[in-house]
Specification:
The chain contains 15 helices and 17 strands. Helix 4 runs parallel beside helix 5. It folds into two domains: 237 residues, Aldehyde Dehydrogenase, Chain A, domain 1; 197 residues, Aldehyde Dehydrogenase, Chain A, domain 2, CATH 3.40.309. By secondary structure, the chain is of the alpha/beta class. One of its GO terms (biological process) is aldehyde metabolic process.
C-alpha cells in the first residue's frame, strides 16, 4: 500500500499532508473498533518482524545487542500498544462536567476528538521505540500520521516502511526520509500537532518553525539527567542499577544517568564497585555481543573529544570493566569509563554526554547535591538511591525534572500509565498514559442547554429577576 516518500521536495511533503487531511475530513473520526483493529495490526506487525528489526538496527549501529533491541524497542512498543488497546474505551469516553446552579437545566461534557494529521520526528538512538510509540498514540487518538525518522538509521527506516506499508494506506500513515533539508521542510508543514524527539538545540529550531503555522508541539529533548546516591545506601545495589542505565545502548539513551553525585567519603568505593558490576555485565569487555557500539564515527569522535578535553584540564579518566583496551578492536566502540575531578571548565560538565562515560561528583550533604542539580537546566530524568526519609523528600520536593525513578534507573519509561516528557530545556508536553492520548486529541467542551433555562433573562431589556441571578452569582 505504502512506500517511503524519499524526497527533498517540500511540495511532495505538502501533497502527502493534503492527502491525509482530505482523507481525515472525508472519513471523519474512526470508531473505537477501527482504532483497536489498527493497533492490533500495528502490534502484530511489530512482533512478527522482531528478528528483522534486530538485524536492521544491528546494521545501522554496526553492533547493537539483540536483547537490548528486543527489550527496549520491540518489547517497549508492544507493551505500550497493548496498554492503549486495553484502555482506549476509557480514554475515548465523554466526561461530564459541572454546571452552575442557575443553569442546572443544561448539561456539560467533554468529548475527545482527533486533531487531524500529526507529524512525528524521531531520533536515531531508539529508531523503533521513539518513532512508533508516538505513532501508535496518534492512531489511538484517531489521527492520521506522517513520520520523519532519522537519516542515520537507513536499514531500520526501510524495514519500517515495508512493514507498515503492507497494512496502512499512505493517507493514514506515511513515512518520509531524508537529511536535515527534508527535516526542515517537515517541521515547516502546518500539522495539527508535531511530536519531536531529539536534542535541545534542534528542538528550539523545530519549535520556531512550527510556530510560523501555530502548530502545537510536544518536545522530548533530553539533557543531563543526574543520579544521587544517598549516604548509607548500598553501593552494590546503586552501582549495578547505574551501570545498567548508563551502559544500556552504550549510554545513547535520552534518560540515561548523565552524571552521579556520590557522598565524598564513598567516591572511591563506588568506583571500585561500579568497575566490578560493569565487568560482571560484560564478561568479554567492550567487544561483548551484549555491548552496543556508538552509532557512527562522528559521535564516537565527539565522545573522545569530551574525554580528551577533561583529561587535558586535569580530570582523572578511568576505564572500567574487563579488557577496556579491546574497544579499539571494534569500530566506533568506547569502553565504559568514569571521570573524576571534573570542573566547570570542562565540556563534559555542561554537554549532554550520550555515551558510556560517567562523571562522578562528590558532595558533602544532600543540600549540596540539590544545589548542584538546581544550578543546571532542568533534566528529563532524575534518579535517587536512598531510604524513604527526609533527604529523599527534600530531593523530590526541591528539584524539578521530567520524571523520577527511585532506587533504580530508566524504568519509569516502562510504566505505560505514567506520562513521559521533559520540563523546560528537557522538553514540553508528554506522551504515554492518558496524557499522551489527550495531547493528541482535542478536548471539545459541549454545553447542551435545557428546554427550561435562564438565558432569556440575560439580555435586554433587563428586568428585576436579573438582580436575583446576579446576587446568586456574586455571593
Amino acid at each position: 500500500m505504502n512506500a517511503i516518500a524519499n524526497t527533498t521536495d517540500a511540495d511532495r511533503l505538502g501533497t502527502l499532508l493534503a492527502a491525509q487531511r482530505t482523507a481525515f475530513l472525508r472519513d471523519g473520526a474512526p470508531s473505537l473498533a477501527q482504532r483497536r483493529a489498527d493497533l492490533v495490526r500495528f502490534r502484530a506487525a511489530l512482533i512478527g518482524h522482531r528478528k528483522a528489526i534486530e538485524d536492521a538496527i544491528n546494521a545501522d549501529f554496526g553492533h547493537r545487542s539483540r536483547y537490548e533491541t528486543a527489550i527496549m524497542e520491540v518489547g517497549g512498543v508492544a507493551e505500550g500498544t497493548k496498554y492503549l488497546i486495553r484502555n482506549l474505551r476509557k480514554f475515548m469516553a465523554r466526561t461530564r462536567r459541572h454546571v452552575a446552579l442557575h443553569m442546572r437545566m443544561g448539561k456539560a461534557r467533554i468529548e475527545y476528538q482527533p486533531l487531524g494529521v500529526v507529524g512525528v520526528m524521531s531520533p536515531w538512538n531508539y529508531p523503533v521505540n521513539l518513532a512508533l510509540m508516538p505513532v501508535a498514540t496518534a492512531i489511538a487518538a484517531g489521527n492520521r500520521v506522517m513520520l520523519k525518522p532519522s537519516e542515520f538509521t537507513p536499514a531500520t527506516n526501510t524495514l519500517l516502511a515495508k512493514m507498515f506499508g503492507e497494512i496502512f494506506s499512505e493517507d493514514q500513515f506515511a513515512m518520509v526520509t531524508g537529511d536535515a533539508t527534508v527535516g526542515a521542510a517537515f517541521t515547516a508543514l502546518p500539522f495539527d500537532h508535531l511530536v519531536f524527539t531529539g536534542s535541545t538545540a534542534v528542538g528550539r529550531a523545530v519549535m520556531k518553525a512550527a510556530g510560523d503555522n501555530l502548530v502545537p508541539v510536544t518536545l522530548e529533548l533530553g539533557g543531563k539527567s543526574p543520579v544521587i546516591v544517598a549516604k548509607g545506601h548500598s553501593l552494590d545495589q546503586a552501582a549495578a542499577s547505574i551501570a545498567f542505565g548508563k551502559l544500556l545502548n552504550a549510554g545513547q539513551t535520552c534518560i540515561a544517568p548523565d552524571y552521579a553525585l556520590v557522598r565524598e567519603d564513598d567516591v572511591e568505593s563506588f568506583v571500585e564497585v561500579y568497575d566490578r558490576k560493569v565487568a560482571s555485565f560484560y564478561a568479554d569487555g567492550p567487544t561483548s555481543e551484549h555491548y552496543t557500539s556508538i552509532i557512527n564515527e562522528r559521535h564516537h569522535a565527539r565522545l573522545r573529544g569530551l574525554l580528551e578535553d577533561a583529561g587535558a584540564k586535569g580530570a582523572r579518566i578511568v576505564e572500567v570493566g574487563n579488557r577496556p583496551g579491546d574497544a579499539s578492536r571494534r569500530p566506533n566502540t568506547l569502553a565504559p569509563t568514569v571521570v573524576l575531578g571534573v570542573t566547570d571548565t570542562m565540556r563534559i560538565a555542561h554537554e549532554e554526554i550520550f555515551g558510556p562515560v560517567l562523571p562522578i561528583f562528590p558532595y558533602r550533604d544532600i543540600g549540596d547535591a540539590i544545589a548542584y542539580v538546581n544550578a543546571r537546566a532542568r533534566p528529563l530524568a532524575l534518579y535517587y538511591f536512598g531510604a524513604d526519609d527526609q533527604d529523599r523528600r527534600k530531593v523530590l520536593s526541591r528539584t524539578t525534572s521530567g520524571n523520577v525513578t527511585i532506587n533504580g534507573t530508566i524504568m519509569h519509561i516502562a510504566q505505560d500509565d505514567l506520562p513521559f516528557g521533559g520540563v523546560g530545556p528537557s522538553g514540553m508536553g508528554a506522551y504515554h498514559g492518558v496524557e499522551g492520548f489527550r495531547t493528541l486529541s482535542h478536548a471539545k467542551g459541549i454545553y447542551e442547554q435545557g428546554r427550561w433555562n435562564l438565558s432569556n433573562l440575560l439580555h435586554a431589556p433587563f428586568r428585576q429577576p436579573i438582580d436575583i441571578i446576579l446576587n446568586m452569582m456574586l455571593r
